[in-house]
Amino acid sequence: MTYNDPLVDELSQYFPSERLKTRPIDLHAYSSDASFYTLVPRAVVFPVSIDEVRQLFGIAKRQGSSVTFRTAGTSLSGQSVTDGILVDLSRNWPLVRAEDDGATVRVEPGVTGSVVNHALKKYGRKIGPDPASIHAAMMGGILSNNSSGMCCGVKDNSYHTIRYLKFLLPDGRVLNTEKKEDYVVFEKECKELFSGIDSLRQRIAGDPELLSKVRNKYKLKNTVGYCLNALVDFQHPLDILAHLMIGAEGTLGFIAEAVLDTIPDKPYKRTALLFFDSPVSACDAVPVLKRSGAEALEFMDRAALRSIEDLPIAPVFIRDLPARAACMLCEYQAEDAVGLEEKMSAAEGAIALLPLIYSTEFSDDPTLQAKYWKLRKGMYPSVAAVRARGTSVMLEDIAVPVERLGAAVEDLQELFNAFQYTNAIVFGHAKEGNLHFLVSQSVATAADIAVFSAFNDALAELVIEKYGGSLKAEHGTGRQVAPYVEAEWGGNAYAIMKALKQLIDPDNILNPGVILNEDKECHLHNLKSLPVVEEEVDKCVECGYCERSCPSREYTLTPRQRIVLRRSLSRLKAAGETAVHDAIVKDYKVDGMATCAVDGMCATNCPVDINTGELIKRLRREDHSRRANKVALFLARNFGVMEWVLKTGLRAGSLVNAVLGRGTMTRLTGFMRKVVPGVPLWTRHLTGPLNIAARTPKSPDAVYFPCCMNRMMGRDAERMDSIVDAAVRLAGRADLKLLVPEGLNGVCCGQAFSSKGFLPAYRLTVNRTIAQLWEWTEQGRIPVVIDISSCTHSLRTCRPSLDPVNQDRYDRMRIVDSLEFAVDHLLPKLHIRKMDGAAVFHPVCSLHKMDLYGKMVQLGSLTVEKPLIPFTAGCCGMAGDRGFFYPGLTAAAGKDEGAEARGENGMGYYSTARPCEMAMSEAAGRNYRSIFYLLDEVSSDL
What is the pLDDT of residue 601? Predict the structure, then answer.
């Protein structure tokens, strides 16, 4: 489907197709962010340089369009969606470099806050802003929204920790406050802007009432409007302009690079939950706890506590708390143990005088602390999970003076009752008077929108008029609060903001309508309805937290985008937009379905535990014809023959490579794919089948089951012996006997059929396999060891697909992963000489899902002097065989981890699944092998 759009035509002259998205599926995929607004862009562009961004500014002016920047899309107020040009910075602006021994850090907009903190960790430092979304949020958004968070307060936010800024103005001028000469250039060559900013600075300085208001507004957390404090805090117009860019939400310029001052990352902590009889008594304790040195004070009202009281990690007594009770999560931090003891000793007296109805002990146990914080952070998913289908969860954000915090909470609760928001909860960063609250609201009808409008008006009146507070403390102004900026700031301040926008962006090309908007109902337009589409994903709030763990995020679509598109299809169908609907449906077959790894890693970061892979597997099932299912069933029934055919083909291909050179089959299949795209690619690290000899000792201790992927392509590129040989040898050293069965050919866990949506074939395969394992394990007497972790997970989750007889057998069998066997059964009995130097480990997705990641850490620490799991480790994208058919998927998925692993120059590279080992070998250019080879190399016979 094509459009006659002159904007797209001009963009196509400057940007290659891989960095310019204009298909309906792409535009609708980018129509949503974490807010409750939706706009379909005209084009999505991925620039790689400042020159290209400058080019975009020129094109936008000529074509009468707009430019909106976006990194992670976790913004909550509608500031990263547009109907103009959407500029995605998440892929090509990844710089992070600690400098001055970690005292500062240099960043580009496309790196997440957690990656920045990881780079600073060895210096004992971190960035000041600590938003809850720091694992997903990128620096472009953190700076452009003036993010803060749980502990940084108003002192260590983005605005106050910026040292230097490099930015591009709408007129194409690049300025850098790190360069002294740029101050001179700005004054001489940007005279109108220079003098205009200076004039506005003097205007505030000459108005005592306005000057006082500006100073007082920023004593609270406040992200409403532009950072007018820049006109008070700085004298030189370039310093003022640089700080105006912070919190400007991309409406004044493009932030290309920043240098931030860092703060100490205090590793010593003590944390407790303190309970009070009411919000007022809890909030009245805030000044006392703040003076005692508390670093974090997180408030939770009774409704918030009720939302998490049934979680397994919640203290049982929470259920019996009084109806108006409230909780404060209190944490003290220090840079060393002595400092923490001194803090706690000083605080004990103050805490003893608080009117507590209950409290937990202050704990320095990281596991217990993590549980407390998980309870605090678990409120968002808990409320989202119980909301009515089709409604949105709106996460609001205000700040009021700390001394009036308790009264504000009670007023909010009364407001919820008035608008019948029955599931609303209040929580937040009480230390700074910053409250978040969640309400569930439908915007599907005019009546729903009228309720939403009235609630926002009532909220604005309460916060602004009664409390003199901020309508947005952390989440940015966006479209949501734009109509209320003048009401909060007053006419004089608002006029200065308008003058700033006109002065810097006179053509209004940068994110128009965000922060400043003359339409007083702009917050009621383009609201994002959430139509009911599929049960697996209807709880999704489109926050985007899932995206960082998705292997296809830079190849086709992310989990959020897959869900957004399902909702878009529903809206388009209802609106009768057949052509766009059908175009998306067509492209979704590849971008949405075929290239989804269905690995389930998206659920590990999702606040409501959505596994988008489950949706895709169902859609694949529904997409299969009866004929396709019959073919799959035939292959399942004759899997032994298929395995033999594949082994024969792999042996032949290996022979071709041996004779004509290792890359011959890769080149040959690559050429064939150009003619027939469905031909699988022979990757450089694809090897041949194993020759497996049965071992049938008397009274074996376990069954060793070599999975079909290992049987077919498990031969190691560097060793003559097989993984089976290594495993049997290791068991012998540990005085254990492994049974390697006869008749392995054709026995499979069925994962290949399950992931592709061939349910009848999967059920046949897995029932047959469980029946066979029942015999091999002597009716469940001994465990079975599975040598590919994804197959272990597949078998451990197969029970619903088994018939009653096999369900009974399954319940009586023990299925052990190779990693568990190595750590729990082999290592305690082996004589280990640690490997010198570094070794790199790749934790496959299934280890996370089976909660075995810790065992990989344990294995590394016991066998290697310097064990390394890359910080960027994630799904490799192989998904069994996806990498053979869509090599771009594994290339994109393993790019970062491969580069990190390659840079370690390890003595060995190890994992627990042959398909993933091949994918990571391609990504890193290093030979990844089974952990059994590692154990074989570092152990010896006693």
Answer: 92
Q: Cα 35–37–38 angle (5° rounding)?
A: 120
- pLDDT score for 153: 85
pLDDT for res 2: 52
Cβ atoms of 274 and 332 closer than 8 Å? no
Of 873, 893, 870, 897, residue with least CA distance to 883:
893
User: Is there a single domain that holds both residue 657 and residue 777?
Assistant: yes
Neighbouring C-beta atoms of residue 237, cutoff 10 Å: 23
Q: Which residues contact 244 (CB under 8 A, 6 or more apart)?
A: 226, 227, 230, 252, 500, 504
Find the helix or strand (DSSP H, E) in which 724 lies.
Answer: helix 723-733
Three-state SS at 917? helix
Residue by residue, DSSP assigns 225-240 as SS-TTHHHH-SSHHHH
Q: Cβ neighbours of residue 34 under 8 Å, at least 6 residues apart?
A: 73, 74, 75, 76, 541, 542, 543, 544
- Residue 587 to residue 25: CA distance in whole angstroms: 7
Residues 244, 288, single domain; the answer is no
Report the Cα 325 to chain-centroid distance in Å. 33
Report if residue 584 sits inside a domain: yes
SS3 774: helix
255 vs 145: CA distance, rounded Å = 12
Give the single-character DSSP code of 314: S
Mean pLDDT by 10 residues, the chain (942 residues): 82 96 98 95 98 98 97 95 98 97 98 97 96 93 94 92 98 97 97 98 97 96 97 98 98 98 96 97 96 95 91 89 96 96 95 95 94 84 76 89 96 96 92 93 92 96 97 95 97 98 98 97 94 90 93 96 97 96 97 94 88 94 94 95 93 92 91 88 90 94 96 86 94 96 94 94 97 97 97 97 98 98 96 95 96 96 96 93 92 95 93 95 95 94 65
Point out which residues pair with 174 in neighbouring strands. 168
Q: Is residue 351 within 8 Å of residue 318, measured between CB atoms?
A: no
Are residues 933 and 794 both part of a single domain?
Answer: yes
- My answer on whether 675 and 544 are in the same domain is no
Same domain for 801 and 873, yes or no, is yes
Q: Look up tokens 């009586």; give the residue.
A: 812
Q: Are residues 674 and 579 in the same domain?
A: no
Whether residues 761 and 792 fall in one domain: yes
Buried b (16+ CB within 10 A) or exposed e, 206-215: eeeebbebbe
* Alpha-carbon separation of residue 208 from 116, 203, 211, 495 (angstroms): 40, 10, 5, 16
d(CA 584, CA 781): 53
The answer to whether residues 607 and 628 belong to one domain is: no
pLDDT attached to residue 374: 85
Interatomic CA distance for residues 533 and 581, integer angstroms: 15
Q: Report the SS3 class of residue 114.
A: helix
Please calculate the CA angle 173-178-180 and round it to the nearest 5 degrees: 85
Q: Is residue 239 part of a domain?
A: yes
Domain containing residue 134: CATH number: 3.30.465.10
State the Cα angle at 334 between 328 and 336, rounded to 5°: 145
Which pair of structure tokens corresponds to residue 245? 């860019």
Distance CA 557, CA 554 (A): 7
Using CA atoms, how far apart are residues 376 and 300, in angstroms rounded to an integer? 8
Q: Quick check: 557 and 591 in contact, CB under 8 A?
A: yes
Note down the domain range covering 224. 47-260+478-514
Strand partners, 397: 436
Which pLDDT score is estimated for 942? 58
Residue 341 phi/psi, 5-degree rounding, is: -60, -40
CA distances from 531 to 116, 288, 527, 541, 607 (A): 37, 47, 12, 12, 20
The whole-angstrom separation of Cα 827 and Cα 821 is: 9
CA distance 350 to 769: 64
Give the Cα separation of 602 and 545 in Å (integer).
8
